[in-house]
TrEMBL record:
<keyword id="KW-0546">Nucleotide metabolism</keyword>
<dbReference type="GO" id="GO:0009117">
    <property type="term" value="P:nucleotide metabolic process"/>
</dbReference>
<feature type="site" description="Important for catalytic activity">
    <location>
        <position position="213"/>
    </location>
</feature>
<dbReference type="GO" id="GO:0043103">
    <property type="term" value="P:hypoxanthine salvage"/>
</dbReference>
<feature type="binding site">
    <location>
        <position position="189"/>
    </location>
    <ligand>
        <name>Zn(2+)</name>
    </ligand>
</feature>
<feature type="binding site">
    <location>
        <position position="270"/>
    </location>
    <ligand>
        <name>Zn(2+)</name>
    </ligand>
</feature>
<feature type="domain" description="Adenosine deaminase">
    <location>
        <begin position="4"/>
        <end position="317"/>
    </location>
</feature>
<dbReference type="InterPro" id="IPR028892">
    <property type="entry name" value="ADE"/>
</dbReference>
<keyword id="KW-0862">Zinc</keyword>
<protein>
    <recommendedName>
        <fullName>Adenine deaminase</fullName>
        <ecNumber>3.5.4.2</ecNumber>
    </recommendedName>
</protein>
<feature type="binding site">
    <location>
        <position position="271"/>
    </location>
    <ligand>
        <name>substrate</name>
    </ligand>
</feature>
<feature type="active site" description="Proton donor">
    <location>
        <position position="192"/>
    </location>
</feature>
<comment type="function">
    <text>Catalyzes the hydrolytic deamination of adenine to hypoxanthine. Plays an important role in the purine salvage pathway and in nitrogen catabolism.</text>
</comment>
<keyword id="KW-0479">Metal-binding</keyword>
<dbReference type="InterPro" id="IPR001365">
    <property type="entry name" value="A_deaminase_dom"/>
</dbReference>
<dbReference type="GO" id="GO:0005829">
    <property type="term" value="C:cytosol"/>
</dbReference>
<comment type="similarity">
    <text>Belongs to the metallo-dependent hydrolases superfamily. Adenosine and AMP deaminases family. Adenine deaminase type 2 subfamily.</text>
</comment>
């Protein structure tokens, strides 16, 4: 049995495996510019975040109907469950679909058909976090929040993703204020490729409760001290960082340094279909390559539930935490 964990940084569109992409392309009559799954997999060589995003957005063209989103989410939940994920807070990118004429309702209802059954079908509790694309305009983000209003009972919070450099958090002050007024939780990608100032700004201007990635906080000692003091969780994604060249090789990933510094770190998969592994694979990789011992692995699993948005169900959080403490690594 794998170590129980929560996944807090997972883009559902980034779980689109080549096989499902081709299946949906056939179902929807969408032409993909790749002969087969092998050729597609060969395109998974990325130089940076943008080179990945280009393929990520291109492949989304196969997602058209509610059923497509249901199938996508069910495939992820089955894989996540097999790797010990007990709770998943799942990002989705509505603007990337609405730009193709796929409505907010299609996306949310489609995902919800899988998420609503997930506890019974997969043993995984779930929440949805709607992300705004930071390389789109602030007005577009506001329109997206407006379009989500009929579905807010299914959305726990908002996030900020896509191309980071040149799109500072402050650009989204208004939509984050509006979301907070609606009672939505707030997170944002910051310090993946962007500077540590973006992390500070996400905290001060957007009022985020967790930082997605946050890797570059290490360049600012005072910021690290603040993140430690305020117990701000970081949703790290080690395999993603290697594939997108935020770190050169996994053996040089700063996760152990960050944990030693007292940061509240979690380990997640980001876009597992593209980066070579799901949540459990990320745990396995840091265990083997970074030599993390049982105490550290248990700490990461504990942190994932501490950092999760389970305030509406503290009994459940306590149950998950008890599973982590009782876990026998042998
Ligand atoms: N790692 C990542 N960073 C920013 N935006 C993303 N969208 C999907 N994956 C992302
Ligand atoms: Zn991400």
């Amino acid at each position: 049995m794998p170590l129980p964990k929560a996944e807090l940084h997972l883009h559902i569109e980034g779980t689109l495996e080549p096989e499902l992409a081709f299946e949906l392309a056939t179902r929807n009559g969408v032409e993909l510019p790749y002969a087969d799954t092998d050729e597609l997999r060969k395109a998974y060589q990325f130089e940076d975040l943008q080179s990945f995003l280009n393929l990520y957005y291109e492949l989304m063209a196969v997602l058209r109907t509610e059923q497509d989103f249901t199938d996508l989410a069910n495939a992820y939940l089955a894989r996540a469950a097999a790797q010990g994920v007990r709770h998943a807070e799942i990002f989705f990118d509505p603007q990337a679909h609405m730009a193709r004429g796929v409505g907010m309702g299609t996306v949310v209802e489609g995902l919800w058909r899988a998420l609503g059954d997930s506890e019974a079908a997969h043993g995984v509790s779930t929440q949805l976090i709607m992300c705004f694309l930071r390389d789109e305009s602030a007005e577009s983000a506001l329109e997206t929040l407006e379009a989500a209003k009929p579905y807010l009972d299914r959305i726990v919070g908002i996030g900020l993703d896509s191309a980071e450099v040149g799109h500072p958090p402050v650009k989204f002050r208004e939509v984050y204020d509006a979301a907070a007024a609606l009672g939505l939780r707030r997170v944002a990608h910051a310090g993946e490729e962007g500077p540590p100032e973006y992390i500070t700004e996400a905290l001060d201007v957007l009022g985020v409760e967790r930082i997605d990635h946050g890797l570059r906080c290490l360049e600012d000692e005072a910021l690290v001290a603040r993140l430690v003091r305020d117990r701000i969780p970081l949703t790290l994604c080690p395999l993603s960082n290697v594939r997108l060249r935020a770190v050169d090789v996994l053996s040089e990933h700063p996760l152990p340094v960050m944990m030693d510094a007292g940061l509240l770190c979690t380990v997640n998969s980001d876009d597992p279909a593209y980066f070579g592994g799901y949540a459990g694979d990320n745990f396995d990789a840091v265990r083997k390559t970074l030599g993390l011992g049982e105490d550290r692995l248990r700490e990461l699993a504990r942190n994932s539930f501490v950092a999760s948005f389970l305030e509406h169900d503290e009994e459940r959080r306590a149950r998950y935490l008890a599973e982590v403490e009782a876990y026998d690594f042998r």
